[in-house]
Design goal:
The protein has 313 residues and is an all-alpha fold. The chain contains 16 helices and 2 strands. It has a two-stranded antiparallel ribbon with strand order 1-2. Helix 7 (122-134) runs parallel beside helix 9, helix 9 runs antiparallel to helix 10 and helix 14 packs across helix 16. It starts with 8 loop residues before the first strand and ends with a helix.
Length: 313
């Protein structure tokens, strides 16, 4: 297996590369950090209206420490550039979440970018990322609808909604009718057969575990939690794994996100052979969620699970 290579270290392990397996994005991100925004312009022009890929690339680029400054310079040179305006807006969202800018400034820039490109869900995704942590339920729902009206299968937006909904009513415990489960099932049913939203019920199950474990209602060690071996868990895992076997979704820019959630669920559900197949496909592209749930070192958790699964395969 390839080594886990990240850009920095945290809690004893390298940080996951949010670019995942997008090598073009990784290369352009390096150039942006050096102030060479022309490569970013070319990349986003080539991405066109592949909305999931555009959202993924802009969000990753926006996470750079100097991205807002370079996007601002780009916008001065090309004041009509939709790409520059959207990157600046999303970079300001990241700065606001880090306490380095204001929420109002981030919202203002996202709405300005949305006016420049009415069909693009990405500025609305930026607003949703901010609201997922800071907004009211009404605001989050409205922003999700704005994204979905432009791209009904928007992958990142659905994951954000699942994470937010999972936090509702922790006191309800293992309620099989909880709204996060209804939302994930509805989204999976509405999507086309080849859509990676087929994995969303597994994501919802993991997000609910995060909330219940943090509230002390489930063990903090997922290996000791029945959350992963119950009837509902088995059903959603089987459906998602069957989808992966048939469709794969390998060309989706956030494919490795889904595979990490599915491998995590299969491993803690005791399905080691199936988990091993998923670990092989993940390669070095670990994502902190859900391996960090509820408060674990994601790299230690991933490495331990991968070692056991591949050893038993």
């Amino acid at each position: 297996m390839p080594p886990l290579i990240g850009r920095s270290r945290k809690r004893g392990g390298p940080l996951a590369d949010p670019a995942l397996d997008d090598s073009e994005l990784s290369e352009v991100r390096t150039q942006l950090a050096q102030g060479r925004w022309i490569a970013v312009s070319s990349l986003l022009t080539a991405t066109a209206d592949d909305w999931d890929r555009r959202g993924h690339r802009i969000v990753v680029l926006a996470e750079g420490q100097s991205s807002a400054a370079w996007a601002r310079d780009w916008l001065l040179v090309e004041p009509e550039s939709v790409d520059a305006a959207t990157l600046l807006a999303c970079a300001t969202v990241m700065r606001a979440l880090d306490g380095k800018d204001t929420d109002d400034r981030a919202r203002e820039l996202c709405r300005a970018a949305a006016r420049l490109a009415p069909a693009d869900p990405t500025p609305w995704l930026g607003l949703l990322i901010l609201a997922r942590s800071r907004g009211t339920e009404e605001e989050v729902g409205h922003l999700f609808d704005e994204v979905r009206s432009r791209h009904p299968e928007h992958h990142h937006a659905h994951h954000l909604m699942a994470a937010r909904l999972a936090e509702h009513r922790p006191e309800a415990g293992q309620d099989p009718l909880h709204e996060v489960y209804d939302f994930a099932a509805w989204a999976a049913e509405q999507a086309p057969a080849d859509s990676p939203l087929a994995v969303l019920p597994v994501v919802a199950h993991a997000e609910r575990y995060r909330v219940l474990a943090a509230a002390g209602m489930e063990p903090s060690d997922p290996a000791r939690s029945a959350h992963w071996s119950g009837r509902r868990a088995r059903q959603v895992m089987k459906t998602a794994f069957d989808w992966w076997l048939e469709w794969g979704g390998e060309d989706h820019p956030r494919n490795r996100v889904d595979l990490n959630f599915l491998a995590h669920a299969k491993y803690f559900g005791g399905r080691q052979a199936e988990a091993a197949a998923l670990f092989q496909r993940i390669g070095a592209h670990i994502t902190p969620a859900p391996w960090s749930y509820p408060d674990r070192d994601p790299f230690q958790a991933f490495l331990a699970a991968r070692s056991v699964a591949l050893g038993s395969a």
